[in-house]
Design brief:
The complex is a heterodimer of chains A (113) and B (110). Chain A is mostly beta strands and 113 residues long. Chain A has a single domain, classed as Immunoglobulin-like, CATH 2.60.40.10. Chain A is built from no helices and 11 strands. In chain B, the strands form 3 sheets. In chain B, strands 2, 5, 6, 9, 10 and 11 form a 6-stranded mixed sheet that branches. Chain B is globular, with a radius of gyration of 13 Å. The chains are: A mainly beta (113), B mainly beta (110).
Chain lengths: 113, 110
């Protein structure tokens, strides 16, 4: 059974702080994704990674960066948090070529005050 | 442009009534479409994919290329079907990226 875990369920940060969201998967998946989930907007792709140290921007990368130093771990970094980054952040992973099903983590609800 | 549209934010039905959650897509190639579901306090999970042509928890979805639709249907709704439903389209360009619709909340009342 695939397990995708996220470091925090709830997080409250102040404007301007640097924020790290961590995601770990235990099934040797190649591809990992970060989304933000907002009511009325669905899931929007922030960044994804198709291999260790490889990353590509998604649809809304501004204000975010990512790091993937190990295959199982994909970190999302908010360089300087702003109130408009208050959201639910979802991490997902998928095995690789030909296997499309994405497995999601439980989400991190980030509030920036 | 690649796009997924779910026109209804909320669909409210009574138990036993038929359900149809609408999904329309825009894609120039051969589409791969999915339905994901998120029950209260649970993580998002795959419900079904059009390639499989399967029925999961009584739900089915048929790809209609002429109408560019992939509506999710169930003949008799149950209270446990109450959840957030997202339609998703596999993007071109590889790496298993998906485009999600805005989601429809299904509320099934007793």
């Amino acid at each position: 059974d695939v397990k995708v875990t996220q470091s925090s369920r709830y997080l409250v940060k102040r404007t301007g702080e640097k924020v790290f969201l961590e995601c770990v998967q235990d099934m040797d998946h190649e591809n990992m994704f970060w989304y933000r989930q907002d009511p009325g907007l669905g899931l929007r792709l922030i960044y994804f990674s198709y291999d260790v140290k490889m990353k590509e921007k998604g649809d809304i990368p501004e204000g975010y960066s990512v790091s993937r130093e190990k295959k199982e771990r994909f970190s999302l970094i908010l360089e300087s948090a702003s109130t408009n980054q208050t959201s639910m952040y979802l991490c997902a992973s998928t095995l690789g070529v030909g296997i499309v099903e994405q497995y999601f983590g439980p989400g991190t609800r980030l509030t920036v005050t | 442009a690649q796009r997924v549209t779910q026109p209804e934010k909320l669909l409210s039905v009574f138990k036993g009534a038929p359900v149809e959650l609408k999904c329309n897509y825009s894609y120039s190639g051969s589409p791969e479409l999915f339905w994901y579901v998120q029950y209260s306090r649970q993580r998002l999970q795959l419900l079904l994919r059009h390639i499989s042509r399967e029925s999961i928890k009584g739900f089915t979805a048929d790809l209609n290329k002429g109408e560019t639709s992939f509506h999710l249907k169930k003949p008799f709704a149950q209270e446990e079907d109450s959840a957030m439903y997202y339609c998703a389209l596999r993007r071109g360009g590889g790496y298993n990226k998906l485009i999600f619709g805005a989601g429809t909340r299904l509320a099934v009342h007793p």
